[in-house]
Amino acid sequence: MTSESANRDVSARCPCLSGLVLGDCCGPVLAGERAAPTAEALMRSRFTAFALGDRNHLLVSWHPDTRPDALDLDESVRWYRLDIESTAAGSPFDAEGEVTFTALYRRGPERGSLHERSRFTRFEGRWVYVDGIIG
C-alpha cells in the first residue's frame, strides 16, 4: 500500500460512485494489490485517485510514453462525482479501449465539470491511461 493510501477508510463509499465500498472497488487497485480488469475500472480508479489525492496511482497508471515527469494536484479542487457515459472496447479481452466520462468538482464556491474521452491500452499486461480529448 502506498503512503498516500495507507490511512484510507476501506469501508467508506468508493469515490467513483460504483455503489461499492473503497475496499471492494478502487482501493485494491490504488494499493497495487490487483490490476484493473477493464479500461473502465482503471478510469474509475484514476478518478478515485484524483478524489483522494493519490499522485502515485495516477503516475503508475499512465502510459510511460505520455506520462508527465511530475504531477501537481490542485488541493483546492474536490472531485465528487463521476458519470461514465460510454465505453468502447476495453474489456479483459481487448488491447485498447475508450471511456467517455464527465467528472464534477468543486473549488471553493465554484462548481465545474470535466468532460473527456480517454484512451487506454494494455502495457506490460495491465491497463494504462494513454491520453484524452477534453470537450
From TrEMBL:
InterPro entries named among the record's database cross-references: NTF2-like_dom_sf, SEC_C_motif, YchJ-like, YchJ-like_M
Domain YchJ-like middle NTF2-like: 38-132
Domain of life of the organism encoding this protein: Bacteria
Gene3D superfamilies linked to this entry: 3.10.450.50
Entry-linked Pfam families: SEC-C (PF02810), YchJ_M-like (PF17775)
Family: Belongs to the UPF0225 family.
Protein name listed in UniProt: UPF0225 protein CA982_08710
UniProt source species: Gordonia lacunae
